[in-house]
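LAB NOTEBOOK - FOLDING QUEUE
OPERATOR: T.R.
BATCH SIZE: 2
PURPOSE: Compare the predicted structure-token outputs for two unrelated chains run back to back under identical settings.
PRIORITY: normal
REVIEWER: second-year student, initials M.K.

ITEM 1
FIELD SEQUENCE / FIELD STRUCTURE:
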Amino acid sequence: MTETGNPSQPTNVHDYTGNHIQVIEGHEAIRKRPGMYIGSTGERGLHQLVYEVVLYAVDEHLAGHADTIDVTITADGGVRVTDNGRGVPVGKGESAGKSVLERQLTEPSFGSRPHTGYRVSGGLSGVGLCVVNVLSSRLTVEVHRDGHRWTQEYEKGTPVTALTRNEETGEHSTTVAFWPDADVFETTLYSFATLSERLRELALLNEGLAISLTDERPAQPVRHHHKGDLRAYITHLNPDLPSFVHSPAIAFASENQDKTILVQVAMQWSTQAPGMIRSFANSTRTHEGGTHEHRFRTALTDIVNEHARRQNLISPDDEDITAEAVQRGLTAVISVKLAHPVFEGATRTRLGNPEAATYVQAVVREHLADWLDNHPDEAAAITRHILGTST
């Protein structure tokens, strides 16, 4: 490469060496290419910062140690997230001189989080608190655990104060407050409606978890909380529809023997609803689907055809009922929670785990086939609806 870099001049391939390769690591990589970690630098990425912190708290709930998450949009444009879990550990970890809390906030890690021992980790990229810290002009953390209140402050991912032990307390909680960096994001204005919808979704996906959202700018606070299975999510997606083919919705859940994959499904057919299938992996919406959603659709079509033939509703010589016919008017939610999610695609919202596909297919085949056999009237109504729309 010539010194002037003029593209019209020839390049000497022998002058191109390893010294010309720019390796970007750690915080520099996150700030230089934020879209790789949170999807974009627009509104979607801005809101993803909130979801990453909230999902960290959701992981604490899944570990059995938190049932409340409070989210606040502060008057000065920041966001504060508090959970009533154990509190992020403040003791020294494997890195000399650095607490576990500081490692969580400064060291990118992918897949399951080694510092916490969580079986399930949410978020798009797995970097969680670190990416939020690096992409924030300022971040503060407050932890109640080990008999004291602990605090620390950061700027653009770098600690500006030491981890400080404050007054004694018997409480347990973690509070993370952050202010997105205006030099990174196209906008730093949060949408109350967007956050509220996503937090409602997380509450519906995680039984027994209460999530509140307060806007100090100001607005009316909301609180999302439900007890039970994913049927509540179906009700949310299809409210007040008088044309259900069957009621209540079908719902089932199963966890594999190793407790590394949990599958939850809820589904309901309607003669008027347009139909939709929403899939999630570790509480993250998989907009592009993936292995879990694909195998759900495949298993669903197979089971409906098998049931229809067993009931002599279609003859052995008839063509199979199409997937399009089976899914018309169907609203379904598929949620998988697994130890090592692999997200693929340009937006990292397509699940790639083959083991998730295998287990989802097995669970759907077992539980849905059993439900149809044990609810003959509802099964007949569903099959009539499907055959009536089949072409």
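ITEM 2
FIELD SEQUENCE / FIELD STRUCTURE:
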Amino acid sequence: MAEGRFATISGVNIHYHDEGQGPVLVMLQGSGPGATGWSNYSRNIAHFARTHRVICPDLPGFGKSDMKPVDAPIPGWWAGMIVGLLDTLGIDKADFVGNSMGGMIALKIALETPERINRMVLMGPGGGSPVSSVFPTEGIKTLVGFYDGPGPSLERLRSFTNQMVFDPGALTDDLLEQRFEAAMDPRIVAQPPMRPGPGGMPEELWRDARLTRLPHETLILWGREDRVMPLDAGFTLMKQIPRARFLVMPQCGHWVQWEHADEFNRIVEGFLAP
């Protein structure tokens, strides 16, 4: 793993990776236990760094970044931190790739400051509303409650990650151990970033009327067998975002960019091409 850098945004230290040269591509991670920017995109960063300047932060509350305040609204506070990071780095506008919570943050940035985003790729993003599936899913319940009850353990993490992918056999012991080490950071154990707090539950972005006026070319990718964010949660976003494309990946769970990395890299590279 490449060495990262730090930037201070409104008193919050954000750890990020800055790889390659060219048009800026911001890659925003999801929110599962042990998640970091690099671990979410370990199979993608090098590919896109050949043609882009890739900025991949650890969201505050994850990895080496400072913690998220317990009363910070989701995803609005994170969206403000990412825009602040762009300001600090002198970046006016960028393409965005966001997985799960990262997709929801990218969408929030598009709604609040549309001029900062060129194109968006959203993989199983939050912010939609399932049409027929039961929600919250077992995957969401496991994610939110990982630190509750009997507390975190490697077996609980294994159970969670098994729900993230179509083929659990693809998960390596090394991957699980890396994520467990990150999840057991004492700061994160004491203040889990996804535990509901005074800031309330995540915002229901699908209710925002501004979705129908977003100007951005948008690619929505979803794993057909996603057990965390069900496929039909994307229908409301696809229907409302005027220039959205919706691509369903077969034999794929919540980590499209990890389970089908080569295909993901090709598709997104084509979408981002000038």
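REVIEWER COMMENT (ITEM 2): The domain at 5-272 is CATH 3.40.50.1820 (Rossmann fold).
FOLLOW-UP: none requested
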